[in-house]
Amino acid sequence: MRVRLEDVARAASVSPKTVSRVLNDEANVTDATRERVRAAMEAMDYRPHPSARSLAGNRSFVVAMLYDNNDNPSSTYLAEIQDGVLEACDAHRYSMMVRPLRMRDGDFIRRLDALISDHHPDGVVLTPPITDYAPLLKRLREHKVPYASVSPQRRGKNLGVTMDEQRAARAIVEHLLDLGHRRIAHVVGIANHGASRWRLAGYHEAMAAAGLPEDPALVVQGAFTFGSGVEAARQLFSLRKRPTAVFAANDDMATGVMWAAGEYGLKVPHDLSVCGFDDTPLSRQLWPALTTVQQPSREMGKIAAEQLLSDLRSHGTGHLVQVPFSLQIRGSTAKAP
Amino acid sequence: MRVRLEDVARAASVSPKTVSRVLNDEANVTDATRERVRAAMEAMDYRPHPSARSLAGNRSFVVAMLYDNNDNPSSTYLAEIQDGVLEACDAHRYSMMVRPLRMRDGDFIRRLDALISDHHPDGVVLTPPITDYAPLLKRLREHKVPYASVSPQRRGKNLGVTMDEQRAARAIVEHLLDLGHRRIAHVVGIANHGASRWRLAGYHEAMAAAGLPEDPALVVQGAFTFGSGVEAARQLFSLRKRPTAVFAANDDMATGVMWAAGEYGLKVPHDLSVCGFDDTPLSRQLWPALTTVQQPSREMGKIAAEQLLSDLRSHGTGHLVQVPFSLQIRGSTAKAP
DNA sequence: TAGCAAATTGACAGCGCTGTCATTCCTGCC
DNA sequence: GGCAGGAATGACAGCGCTGTCAATTTGCTA
């Protein structure tokens, strides 16, 4: 039979309420008592019943991770964030609930309301690109459901985690500049995504800092997919003056660029340098391996969830954490021809 | 304030217990009463409190989806299954919990036990490759937690969903044979995975049926990844007598094969036909688009969850459903040179 | 039309915890 | 040594629902 809090209380010779206090890390328990209760819990392998805690304590121990599976960056990216969030939730004995929401759907808010009234999550983790969708944020605030974001566009006093993508993008373009490239193209991601904007801004910044004139033909729209990378590259390779390097806003598109290079008989990196962003597993499997920016997605998911949980525990302790990036210089970039 | 069952009862002039009966689709309620209660629920937008239901009814309304994120087929595949499972759970007002478990880790069973004692899932959905891991199944039975599987290797009286992958593999190889190919290679997936075995068996079957001699050099080991596809292809292209067609056990490896073809100056499909398996989004983005077998992963996840939920509701009503496959003949395969 | 079984409905306790508030146990200090 | 005041602990009700079983109504049969 299940071990209950009452059983632990009896074993530790205290009242159930005291065990509850220890369980919830509440104040006003002497160290000796706390230790005794802890030992009893341990010895009996006590597991609190989440539903009972939830019912009595008016909280759910559930964190919902919201994402947009329509307009999403890539399933690998989301899967990694999910893993990170899950790890953090696990560590704090929270459970994670995942929730696809399609921003473009009319019933977006209705589905959010349903999530909240059906499951009462204690908090929510938002992932790109829905970190900055105003109606969503408004609704969450109305329901008083705290949230933390992964790579939000607006950096306010909100919780979550970011990376300085603009500086990272600038750094990778500077790497190309250092290699002697001057005609450097950029394949942009989906418009309105923060990722697209920051990476483009970093590209502009690096080019401007190098005193290079902007050639609008070298900035091509993509959509974060392999296919869009192929198409963007075809446009670039059809120019009278081809670029000698392409910085794609993510690895999938960069892979598409490398693919298209093959079609045009361009050898990477001899004739063309290519770099991406994200450091997906794919980038290491390519040949040559892709120069890219490591974005620690899993870690970022974990941090976002931790900030949320910390803030749930004691309001005001959550922050917006910035994680460092690191360039992964690999075989796909080389001296300009 | 929250609408409670009691409020609905008052509005419908019945006892709380009767509302509960309607909520749980129990027998012995007159149609008139049932209707009246339903109307009241609707009018008041009543949402039962899952924790209260769970606590009183000794069930959790939670379905856990277990997967191996170490040795997994691909995150896209898992993400699609997850979406399907989630859809089914939502429809039945269950919540879904995801759970990575590493089969190769020593604490596999401990983590499973923790999942069960912490969250008490009413049922579990298993995904490849952990659908047939004996210690896992044993433990689930010991805990009396019902499970349904996606593509289990053993077809017993268990619940879940399958596709006749062997016949699908045979069909796609026959497609190559129809195009006049005789030297057809196969890139195998991770050993022990059902998917690898069935697809290989289908390949053998088709070749044998066509009366073609087996050339062991044409069967190369891969690992379901893009990179392993590239390497396998390099082996194949280094043979004195190259294959004219390659059937890779999944799309990622097929993409790798196409990539390697470029390295060797082989034009797809002119010099080499390539086909894959899964019909991932990637397969349509490639140029030429990949001939492959459509595996309706999302649908399969949904079906597996539905069978599980059906069986939870009334024991014995869940089945092992077989879904049809369909060949997606696209640009990557053509007449033998 | 009485009489009985089956169908329908309801009363009530209790699932395992936590919030509230009362009680007891310590301190330090005059 | 006695007492105020805060720290530690406990008693008890109740969170919102369902299981059990009792009460009532209904539908038949004789």
Please outline what is shown here:
Chain A is of the alpha/beta class. Helix content of chain A is 45%, strand content 15%.
The helical percent of chain A reads 40-55%
Q: Cα distance, first to last residue of chain A?
A: 74 Å
Form type of chain A: elongated
Question: Which series of helices and strands of chain A comes N to C?
Answer: HHHHEHEHEHEEHEHEHEHEHEHEE
Rg of chain A (C-alpha, Å): 25 Å
Give the biggest sheet of chain A: 6 strands, parallel
Classify the oligomer: homodimer
**Strand fraction of chain A:** 5-15%
Helix/strand-derived class of chain A?
alpha/beta
User: How many separate helices of chain A?
Assistant: 13
Chains forming the largest contact: A-B, 42 and 42 residues
The unreliable regions of chain A are none
Overall pLDDT metric of chain A: 94
Could you tell me the number of beta strands of chain A? 12
> What strand order characterises the main sheet of chain A?
2-1-3-4-5-11
